[in-house]
Specification:
Layout (H helix, E strand, L loop, with lengths): L3 E4 L7 H9 L9 H9 L2 E7 L2 E10 L4 E9 L8 H11 L8 E4 L5 H5 L20
Parallel strand pairs: 4-5
Antiparallel strand pairs: 1-2, 2-3, 3-4
């Protein structure tokens, strides 16, 4: 596999391609480009590249001190299974702006094995609560 480059430079992200791929995911259905503009602009974003071509994306909602919520982790369908997600995760967790954050969370319906490799566990402690509502 070619070398994977992880970049935190938001200007390199192919917004339209990233937005479209997320909208095709099971969690992004019903989102709009406007929603993604707002979400990306208010998050710490990372993208994976091979030979200058974007092949993955992830974002973190964080206060840079106490908590981080990992979301929209996605590898382009034709590039899955090659370890790109692992490199993206490792780079995010090691980034100097995020390395001191102690409490990370995420929600996934299909990638538990990926996140378990980085120490994530399914929460069954009865402490986490969730509110899901339709945006106004």
């Amino acid at each position: 596999m070619a070398d994977v480059e992880i970049s935190f430079d938001r200007s390199r992200i192919d917004f339209q391609k990233t937005s479209e791929i997320i909208k095709e995911s099971y969690w992004g259905e019903g989102r709009t480009d406007e929603t993604h503009h707002r979400a990306f602009n208010n998050s710490f974003c990372a993208a994976a590249f091979i030979n200058g071509e974007q092949v993955g994306f992830a974002r973190v909602v964080t206060d840079y001190a106490c908590f981080a919520y990992l979301c929209d982790v996605i590898i382009w369908p034709e590039r899955r299974g090659a370890g790109i997600g692992k490199k993206l995760m490792a780079a995010l967790l090691a980034h100097p702006d995020l390395a001191a954050v102690g409490s990370w969370s995420l929600r996934t319906g299909d990638a538990h094995k990926l996140y378990e490799q980085f120490g994530f566990v399914t929460s069954t402690d009865g402490m986490y609560m969730r509110l899901a509502r339709k945006p106004a």
